[in-house]
Design brief:
Radius of gyration: 20 Å
Order of helices and strands: HHHEEEHEEHHHHH
Number of domains: 2
CATH architecture of the largest domain: 2-Layer Sandwich
Shape: globular
Largest sheet: 5 strands, mixed
Strand content: 15-25%
Number of helices: 9
Length: about 250
């Protein structure tokens, strides 16, 4: 907010619209709601808020039992781009790593098992190499965690970085259960991103950060979402007396 041409009122109004829905919020919709004449101003504002959401969720690591998987999402491609690959690795797809902190729950009456998801992390990645996945494990997951994956050889050295690594064939009953929430999350992310007409690779992580931030706080309520954003502004020193005075 510091060095911004927008007033504090405009910032808070934009944040309110952004956090009033659990779905992704487009720049076009924000432009319509707030009456801005220039789309680029609104576009930049939206991505500043999404960046803030990402920074807030970067403050913690996932713990206990964590699911890990990788998938593809659609991205915008240049009109002049010549497609050289199809399917896995196509230029029209971006790679995303997904991590879900989940807990196994048992129904005391039936004995049936289910899983509850506490927090998610998603990061755009450049490749499917082991070193890429291992760096994410080291940076984003607590060393004492139990990490569940499929049987890809990419994950064969995970035990060097966390307490326990459990792998299963992903299309088996056990594999589907152990990776339940990362599969749900990627499906929901793909659905959420469909409302945006064009998502360039440069901004994919910002859209992912908005999705993850809202999903991680699905039970917090709208007002608490706003409070968290304002807390982050306060911690980073971006809200000064002059902004408040001019509100």
């Amino acid at each position: 907010m510091e060095n911004s041409n927008l007033t504090l009122k405009e910032w808070l109004t934009a944040i309110t619209f952004f956090t009033a829905t659990k779905q992704g919020f487009s720049a076009l919709e924000l432009q319509r709601q707030m009456g801005f004449s220039r789309y680029q101003t609104v576009f930049n504002l939206c991505h500043k808020i999404r960046t803030l959401m990402g920074k807030r969720d970067a403050e913690y690591k996932l713990e206990d039992m964590v699911e890990y998987d990788e998938s593809y999402i659609t991205k915008a491609s240049s009109k002049n781009q010549v497609t050289t690959k199809r399917g896995r690795g196509t230029e029209k797809k971006a790679l995303v790593a997904l991590m879900a902190e989940s807990t196994v729950l048992e129904d005391f009456k039936t004995g049936d098992l289910t899983k509850n998801c506490r927090y998610l992390k998603m990061n755009k990645i450049d490749n499917l190499k082991s070193k890429t996945a291992e760096k994410l494990i080291k940076d984003l997951i607590d060393k004492s965690a139990v990490v569940q994956t499929d049987e890809s050889t990419t994950y064969s050295n995970f035990e060097d970085f966390i307490d326990v690594h459990v792998s299963n064939v992903s299309n088996t009953k056990e594999g589907k259960f152990n990776l339940r929430w990362v599969h749900i999350a990627i499906s929901n992310l793909k659905g959420d991103l469909r409302k945006f007409k064009m998502i360039s690779e440069k901004y994919i992580q910002n859209y992912i950060d908005e999705f993850v931030y809202k999903l991680n706080r699905k039970y917090f309520g709208e007002n608490y979402l706003i409070d968290l954003l304002l807390r982050q502004f306060s911690l980073t020193g971006k809200v000064g007396y002059n902004h408040i005075r001019n509100y």
